[in-house]
Amino acid sequence: xxxxxxxxxxxxxxxxxxxxxxxxxxxxxxxxxxxxxxxxxxxxxxxxxxxxxxxxxxxxxxxxxxxxxxxxxxxxxxxxxxxxxxxxxxxxxxxxxxxxxxxxxxxxxxxxxxxxxxxxxxxxxxxxxxxxxxxxxxxxxxxxxxxxxxxxxxxxxxxxxxxxxxxxxxxxxxxxxxxxxxxxxxxxxxxxxxxxxxxxxxxxxxxxxxxxxxxxxxxxxxxxxxxxxxxxxxxxxxxxxxxxxxxxxxxxxxxxxxxxxxxxxxxxxxxxxxxxxxxxxxxxxxxxxxxxxxxxxxxxxxxxxxxxxxxxxxxxxxxxxxxxxxxxxxxxxxxxxxxxxxxxxxxxxxxxxxxxxxxxxxxxxxxxxxxxxxxxxxxxxxxxxxxxxxxxxxxxxxxxxxxxxxxxxxxxxxxxxxxxxxxxxxxxxxxxxxxxxxxxxxxxxxxxxxxxxxxxxxxxxxxxxxxxxxxxxxxxxxxxxxxxxxxxxxxxxxxxxxxxxxxxxxxxxxxxxxxxxxxxxxxxxxxxxxxxxxxxxxxxxxxxxxxxxxxxxxxxxxxxxxxxxxxxxxxxxxxxxxxxxxxxxxxx
Length: 588
Hints:
- By secondary structure, the chain is α/β, with parallel strands linked by helices.
- Among the domains are: about 1-40 and about 55-80, no CATH class; about 95-235; about 465-575, no CATH class.
């Protein structure tokens, strides 16, 4: 009986393949259901794809023969459930398996592909290229209408389980998995992807049911682009290096990631990390990550929905803008133990439950935007002094754009947490900054200044009592001195003649109220209480020595102060009432 190996060899000969030693070895191993291993066991170092030039003819395989085995109706019947497994081969030509339906695994470990691999709209149970290197080919891209440099072209590829591009895998040219469907994980740990002029790794619109691992030595020169992808597990980029200084280093715009995004613990990006509009079911963890894009956005998650927290802490470093404008952060935003960098932080119209921060990790003045940022509480241990929260708010570029919302938000949270005095300090600071940076008219500026210096804009109405005490004390001294003058500058109001000669002392009945400087000052100042002094005694403008230059007598000056005393009493009393009832605060 003819063996399976002999039958497969006969089919290959009938297909007019030239069968050398490597090809015979491949076909026999396929028929036997075992891996075909071309490694040199005694010289392990030579098996590295970096030493490809030292590989001999005994390791060379034709990509055309491999494609025939996988796609020929008769030949593929010899492939067992273990699939096609090749180790350490040098594969010449472009391995084109486009549209092939392969219900078995494909595994090429530590192989060297001399041209691109084509898997467009193919289906395979499992794809393993771990440790292999793939050289680039120029192919025509219908989408862009031009030739592109590609290493692995797999548009719409369907993989039942995992794709492994890891453990020393390297690609020169783009790896293109746009629209792919992957039933397990996309494993790229310790993989190297080089395409400096374009996309190094692209999985736009892909559906990946497991985790995407771009970590533990992963390196990309060029764009890693996951826009619109659906990832069932984590997007893990710990200890990964992403380099695309002229554009997006890592992009997942509009992606849906069911788990956590890990850009931490040695993660490094030169260029933009762009997560705009992404939905993240877990957290966005950037602890210990380095983000460098000095001339633009270093980390962007504009309008992203993050159901966990966002952690910019424990050595997180950003040179460039961290843009979280409009983001929805479910649990909390952490800004602690931030490393060196030159971060600009934009939180405009972002929302979160808890703000966790520390002063040493706040951006420098002019590099913060809080307009519209809302949060429900400030974490225990974060700064809660009014002066500290004002410092936080004032790190915005208030000269360019002043908004009262950050002050009101901070005050609302502080008050809800029991920090009433701190909340009041923040709201007073809001009015002070409005006067300095707001677009107030001259009248508005003066009114703001006046309220600030009298009742602290209604937040400290008792200040009006301090001013009142000062006026009453001054009035007591001035009115008392005027009454003590000879002749007296304060005369009885109800005795005729009122304007008596200076030497004439009016005769008063025993029932006439006696003058008391303190009570008189109170009676003149307080408009709602009658102490029976103001209506019986008045400063006499016709008495006293004449003052040079102003041509007024001292009695006339005392009369002018008398009127000022009355006006001040009405104003300060009204302000105290308005401040006490909260009317001023409501109007402002």
